[in-house]
Design goal:
385 residues, single chain
């Protein structure tokens, strides 16, 4: 994964010497601002015409994201995004390997580009998760085992720790089973019959999110009502707020399906808050101060200060994951993201929607939301027996 200043890759984000860090500190704000002024964000960064919730960088956006979609949401099932990798093979004839020799070699070449990102201790942890001998060296056995993990978890099958596989196999924060269970328990513990107004319902959901965000070290969010937005809930990173569609909350909390949809949206958007904070912690770990982070990522200064106080260690699993999210939203993936969003606005087909859902940070947030909904369904099935 490369870091880009403008459109020209000038050094590896994952492998920065002190000279590169100093150079990047001197150019980061300008680069970010140039990119952000054309950055076409997904739902957690959609602009609102209410001044309180406005997240516009330059006052203009040529593309806006699609409405938040759920399984079984309002009149039918949305189609799951199918994440594919060019040349993804089927099981090799006569054996259990998923990757051909050519593809396995391509995966090994991927790791060879950034050897500092895969120190022996990290590779051993990866191999331990894959159930193979922990040698500390990425070899063909490792990439084949990873391909098997990817197949089992509906991930692109390529043997690479890419933007889709990293946040799953090295899950942290809201993506861990412990956080999912805590969110589920918290949601089931809310007695919505005691919350009669829209404000009270929004407050209950915000408290649910903040309990989980605080537990994983992410600053809490504040609630905002915005009846004009398309989604039940939406993260506004510039204000560090969760905006609720007040009409949706008012009209869809008397039935279980409506409540479940809002809860799904809440954990999805809370994950976006965690992603944004993780990106700030990533750059804090590379030496940026709070003012630089605030100006560059357009987040409140107090949030940037918290990121500086808890930076990610370089070459850690969390730093690698956050780096992939940054690359998708602000780095080399920026042009592709803009095109994907524009395509949907011009032609809102299922295929173009799935392309948005397959953006790395969206795939991650949707996965977290879907895992919550699956756990919720399992819980209800057991209690009904």
């Amino acid at each position: 994964m490369k870091c880009h200043i403008g459109n020209t890759p000038n050094f590896a984000l994952r492998n920065q010497s002190s000279i590169c860090i100093l150079h990047y500190q001197s150019t980061l704000e300008t680069s970010f601002i140039m990119n952000l002024e054309t950055h076409q964000s997904t739902e957690h960064k959609q602009s609102s015409m209410q001044s309180e919730g406005m997240d516009q960088f330059s006052g203009q956006r040529s593309a806006s994201p699609p409405p938040f979609q759920f399984k079984n949401f309002e009149g039918g099932e949305s189609t799951e995004a199918v994440k594919t990798d060019a040349g993804t093979p089927v099981l090799a004839e006569g054996g259990g390997d998923l990757l051909t020799d050519e593809q396995a070699n391509a995966a090994l070449a991927f790791y060879a580009q950034f050897p500092e990102d895969y120190p022996a201790d990290l590779v051993k942890r990866l191999q331990g998760k894959l159930g193979i001998v922990a040698t500390g060296t990425i070899d063909k056995e490792t990439v084949q085992a990873l391909a098997g993990y990817q197949k089992a978890n509906d991930l692109p099958i390529n043997g690479k720790l890419d933007a889709y596989t990293l946040p799953k196999i090295f899950a942290f924060g809201l993506a861990t089973p412990e956080s999912q269970e805590s969110f589920l328990k918290g949601y089931l513990g809310i007695d919505f019959s005691t919350h009669t107004t829209t404000i009270e319902k929004m407050s209950a959901f915000t408290q649910l999110m903040n309990d989980q965000l605080r537990a994983v070290g992410v600053p809490p969010v504040k609630a905002l009502g915005d009846p004009a937005q398309k989604d039940p809930a939406q993260f506004r990173f510039r204000k560090w707020k969760i905006a609720f569609n007040t009409d949706y909350v008012a009209n869809h909390t008397d039935d279980q399906k409506g409540l479940d949809n809002i809860a799904n949206a809440c954990i999805h958007e809370a994950r976006h808050a965690e992603q944004t904070f993780s990106m700030a912690r990533r750059w804090a770990g590379l030496g940026l101060d709070a003012t630089q982070l605030s100006n560059s990522l357009r987040i409140p200064l107090e949030i940037a200060e918290k990121a500086v106080a808890s930076p990610f260690k370089d070459h850690s699993e969390q730093a690698l994951v956050a780096g992939e999210w940054w690359d998708s939203e602000y780095g080399s993936g920026l042009s592709s993201r803009k095109k994907i969003l524009s395509n949907y606005n011009e032609n809102p087909t299922t295929e173009n929607y799935n392309a948005i859902r397959s953006l790395p940070e969206e795939a991650d947030a949707y996965r977290v939301g879907d895992e919550f909904s699956s756990a919720l369904g399992d819980h209800r099935s057991k209690t009904e027996k």
